[in-house]
Specification:
The chain is of the alpha+beta class and 311 residues long. It contains nine helices and ten strands.
């Protein structure tokens, strides 16, 4: 009897959920929304439907309801940022060799002319379209995202979600989408047609954030999840029993870190037996504060047991 690896099954379920949400997104709409958000003050993120991060959570669902939308906003930011690098990437023409269906996903295998030094790897996000996206021309109506699963020579195996767009991040609620339906119908017609095919463009790599997503969802199975959900003593500041550091260094830290970073540093200097530091990136911006905060921890004394570092 084959032994089923429970951990692998859990990770696969996370990846499938991730793909259902992301691969149905409309690339053009993401660019428009990003432009609109840049032109207005989104404040604390509530305008994007995001909730404020809390110190304590009633249960795992409460925890995921806060952090999962934040992570998907980070995915959107990576996709939009990838547009700035499109000039370095080139559209490729591909022939659909075969296509199968599994778990509701379309799994096309496409052939294309690869070039030396070209980098298309697992978990690269590609944009497939009937025509190239070019300035001054009418945008195509049939296009969709695909995730690269495997590459062998000039063949690419892709994963696509073409049943509709997931509403918010509720994978049980899928809204029909003519754009995706048209792509689903087209792919089956293009199989092994040497005169017709699809163009694709590499947008960005999602390898790191896919791993982060698996880590986020894995809280369900952590033996110490209650310590994460019901953290104690979140009040910032240094008490009398805290580790002491030179005043000039403390003044530098207080001047060059924001409120949440200071709270993390204060916690790391306390004599608390358990300290959990969860690093969050600023939505749509490079994580400039994270390296500074981490360096602050490394340069100071280490009196705590850090059970987990969740990004």
């Amino acid at each position: 009897m084959a032994v089923v690896d429970k951990k692998l099954l859990e990770e696969e379920a996370c990846i499938l959920r991730f793909c259902k949400v992301v691969l149905g997104w409309d690339y053009v709409r993401l660019l428009k929304e990003s432009k609109q958000n840049n032109s207005r003050n989104i404040g604390d993120g509530s305008a994007l439907g995001l909730n404020k991060v809390k110190d304590r959570y009633t249960d795992v669902n409460d925890y995921l309801a806060i952090f999962e939308p934040l992570l998907f906003e980070e995915v959107k930011a990576q996709i939009v940022q990838g547009r700035d690098e499109e000039e370095m990437a080139e559209w490729k023409f591909a022939i659909v060799r075969e296509c199968s269906e599994t778990d509701g996903f379309s799994i096309p295998v496409v052939g294309y002319k690869s070039e030396e030094g070209e980098s298309i790897s697992q978990n690269d996000l590609l944009l497939l379209s009937t025509t190239k996206f070019q300035e001054g021309t009418r945008l195509p109506t049939t296009y969709a995202f695909a995730l690269a699963e495997h590459r062998q020579g000039d063949l690419l195996r892709l994963r696509m979600w073409l049943h509709g767009e997931v509403k918010q991040i509720n994978t049980d609620e899928v809204v029909p989408c003519p754009r995706l339906s048209a792509m689903h119908s087209l792919i089956s017609k293009l199989i092994n047609d040497p005169n017709r095919g699809l163009y694709f463009l590499k947008i960005c790599s999602l390898s790191t954030i896919v791993r982060e997503y698996i880590g986020l969802r894995s809280i369900v199975f952590l033996p110490f999840k209650d310590l994460i959900l019901k953290a104690t003593d979140s009040s910032p500041g240094l008490g009398e029993q805290s580790w002491k550091i030179p005043r000039p260094l403390m003044e530098f830290i207080e001047t060059n870190h924001n409120e949440s970073q200071l709270a993390a540093i204060y916690a790391s200097l306390s004599r608390t037996a358990f300290v959990l530091i969860q690093n969050l990136r600023t939505i749509g911006l490079p994580p400039m504060g994270r390296s500074r905060e981490d360096s602050g921890h490394l340069q100071g004394p280490q009196p705590m047991a850090v059970a987990s570092l969740l990004k």
